[in-house]
Amino acid sequence: MTDSRILVDALGRIHNNLRISVTDRCNIRCFYCMPNENVQFKPRAEILTFEEIVRFTRVAASLGVNKLRITGGEPLVRADLPELIGELASVPGIRDIAMTTNGILLADQIVALKQAGLQRLNISLDGLREETFERISRRPGLDRVLEGIFAAQRAGFEKIRLNAVAIRGITEDEIVPLGEFARRHGLELRFIEFMPLDAENNWSDDQVLSGGEIREALENAFGSLLPIERTDPSQPATDYQFADGIGVIGFINPVTQPFCSDCNRLRITAEGKIRNCLFSIAEWDAREVMRGGGSDEQLCELLHDCIRAKKPGHGIDSPDFVRPERAMYQIGG
Ligand code: SAM
Ligand code: SF4
To answer: Cys-Cys crosslink for 294: which of 170, 255, 298, 303, Cβ 3.0 to 4.6 Å?
Structure first.
């Protein structure tokens, strides 16, 4: 591939990491992501088919994309997901396929997913008490998430990551138990700051439990956390090791410590809109190109247009910040 083909933006950020949302549907209703009731899901006909997702990925891979993350909505509610993973794994140039899931349907599907070529897993777990789980997700299901985590370990997944969104007034008491749980079971734990992407538009910055505060709570319980040198500058988390050497903990602090300057991620929504940022207002319609008989070259141009337009940062802390109309489940986290 010539340098002129790679997806590089005006700040020199090279985009090799594609997040593919396979559905906007979900089996729970986390308040920081979805509405509780009457969710307006996209009709099936508007959602990209597997064939379209694979074609788009092949084109993106021809421009240097080599890492994929499957997300949603809840990716495991999409039927036949292992089939898609298998097809994506055989796209030339793709060397890493990961998935982010709420874990509820994981135990049933994990073996097929692994066999199909899924390499890495992030499982969302904000706390260990059913009460916290239901307060956040507004549905029951913690037992099934835990079952999913252990099933993934049994299936041979290494370095499973737990993603915990931290919310003031709700998850303070969960921080240390989550740390203990992760250490005991050999899981990596990452705390994520609550971002203004909730569907009900109730986010306020005083609900953001910052990575700094969480770190302090963990250090009070476990002793100093020792910074781990970053091997990949584009990784969003700052990682630490516990002082006794058992366990790794990461902080993704998009609100208090934005990491936009090293961002290498682009996204495609379930209905085929390409986005250069979670917080982007503009979108580029890959489905229109594909269903309108457009060529792969036109898809390449669309991808380049999207990346060229990427802003330096999300601007959450700016007085001019405008939230995207889409909520997290409609983008793909
Ligand atoms: N349903 C899957 C899940 O929950 O893991 C995948 C999609 S979900 C949108 C991806 C990740 O985004 C999850 O770890 C979730 O906790 C996180 N998330 C959702 N809304 C968020 C918000 N407003 N701020 C921060 N993280 C959020
Ligand atoms: Fe569903 Fe994931 Fe959104 Fe929670 S964060 S509502 S599990 S898509």
So the answer is: 298
CA distances from 318 to 49, 255, 323 (A): 38, 11, 11
pLDDT at 3 over 70: no
Going edge to edge, which strands form the sheet with 120-124?
A: 225-227, 238-242, 248-252, 188-193, 161-166, 120-124, 96-101, 67-71, 17-21, 265-268, 273-275, 284-285
Q: Is the pTM of this model over 0.90?
A: yes
Residue 237: CB atoms within 10 Å = 21
Alpha carbon distance 235, 248 (integer Å)? 15
Q: How many of the other CB atoms lie within 10 Å of CB of 272?
A: 23
pLDDT at 123 (0 to 100): 98
| CATH of the structural domain 17-160+253-331, one choice from 3.90.1170.20, 3.40.50.150, 3.40.980.10, 3.20.20.70 | 3.20.20.70
The one-letter amino acid at 195: M
d(CA 159, CA 330): 28
Write the pLDDT tens digit of every residue in 198-215: 999 999 999 999 999 999
Task: Enter the tokens of residue 125.
Answer: 């777990």
Predicted confidence (pLDDT) per residue in 145-182, tens digit: 999 999 999 999 998 999 999 999 999 999 999 999 99
Protein residues with CB under 6 Å of any ligand 1 atom: 26, 32-33, 71-72, 74, 100-102, 124, 163, 165, 192, 194-195, 197-198, 328-329, 333
Mean pLDDT of 288-293: 98
Ligand 1 geometric centre to CA of 333 (Å): 5
